[in-house]
């Protein structure tokens, strides 16, 4: 783990075990203000488990996660509110409309005027005309856009994205890349899991590779040099 004076998110020697299997085997990571980190690796490398630990959704067997230098704990909603996440599941309630889903999320975050906040977020996502629809009536791509809008609703400092380009068309993918760059540009930080590095490479500042629950690559993306692309190819994601 490299030292940092401007870290928003820090993982220190994280382990996560499922019985005899260790999904994370001593992962340390620092994500600084203004960074967009591409987290790459083959299936089973521990990427999703790491994101869940970073989000406070899973408790590591050993190690700690810090948000802005403060240890992330289950009973600390202030730290959790600094994080927004897009997971494999959309976390949308099937029996609520898109507007109701996002308004419910806004209330959970303690935001004023939740309905107005939700409506504005759906408009930005290009879903204003579908705000009265239930999630099952929408395409996978639309559901993903709604999930992204929900994750960004409270303008979190830290955005964690697990395969966020799944189901998105070219226009929505371009909009998501602009969002990632915007979060980093306003002083936030982003961690993106993707099996397709080319989707996010142009806005990523750094690539971290996992294999077997361990960090095996940590390098800047600038220049797209062979020193980075060869290890990515060896990880099966380049």
Question: In brief, what are we looking at here?
Answer:
With 238 residues, the protein is an alpha/beta fold. The chain is built from 7 helices and 10 strands. It has helices at 47-55, 77-80, 98-108, 114-124, 140-152, 170-185, 226-235, and strands at residues 7-18, 21-32, 36-40, 62-67, 70-71, 83-86, 158-162, 189-193, 206-211, 214-220.
Q: Shape, please?
A: globular
The largest β sheet comes out as: 6 strands, mixed
What fraction of residues sit in β-strands?
Answer: 25-35%
Order of helices and strands: EEEHEEHEHHHEHEEEH
Number of helices: 7
Distance between the termini: 24 Å
Structure summary, number of beta strands: 10
Low-confidence stretches: none
**What is the structural class?**
alpha/beta
Average pLDDT over all residues? 90
Characterization of the model:
This protein has about 240 residues and is of the alpha/beta class. Helices cover about 30% and strands about 25% of the residues. The chain is built from 7 helices and 10 strands. The chain has helices at about 45-55, 75-80, 100-110, 115-125, 140-150, 170-185, 225-235, and strands at about 5-20, 20-30, 35-40, 60-65, 70, 85, 160, 190-195, 205-210, 215-220. It has a 6-stranded mixed β-sheet, sandwiched between helices. The chain has a 4-stranded antiparallel β-sheet with strand order 2-1-4-5, covered by helices on one side. A hairpin with a 2-residue loop joins strand 4 (about 60-65) and strand 5 (about 70). Helix 3 (about 100-110) packs across helix 4 and helix 4 packs across helix 5 (about 140-150). The protein is globular. The two termini are about 25 Å apart. The mean pLDDT is about 90.
């Amino acid at each position: 783990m490299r030292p940092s004076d401007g870290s928003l998110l820090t993982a220190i020697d994280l382990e996560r075990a499922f019985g005899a299997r260790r999904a994370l085997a001593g992962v340390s990571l620092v994500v600084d203000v203004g960074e967009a980190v591409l987290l790459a690796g083959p299936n089973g490398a521990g990427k999703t488990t790491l994101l869940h630990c970073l989000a406070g959704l899973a408790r590591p067997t050993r190690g700690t996660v810090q948000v802005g230098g403060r240890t992330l704990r289950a009973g600390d909603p202030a730290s959790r509110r600094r994080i927004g996440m897009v997971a494999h599941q959309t976390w949308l309630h099937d029996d609520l409309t898109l507007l109701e889903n996002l308004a419910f999320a806004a209330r959970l975050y303690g935001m004023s005027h939740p309905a107005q906040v939700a409506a504005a977020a759906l408009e930005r996502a290009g879903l204003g005309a579908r705000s009265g629809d239930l999630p099952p009536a929408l395409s996978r791509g639309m559901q993903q856009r709604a999930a992204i809008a929900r994750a960004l609703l409270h303008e979190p400092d830290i955005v964690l994205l697990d395969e966020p380009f799944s189901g998105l068309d070219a226009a929505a993918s371009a909009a998501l890349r602009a969002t990632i760059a915007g979060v980093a540009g306003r002083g936030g930080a982003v961690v993106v899991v993707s099996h397709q590095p080319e989707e996010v490479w142009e806005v990523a500042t750094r690539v971290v590779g996992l294999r077997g629950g361990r960090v095996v690559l940590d390098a800047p993306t600038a220049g797209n040099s062979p020193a980075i692309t060869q290890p990515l190819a060896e990880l099966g994601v380049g």
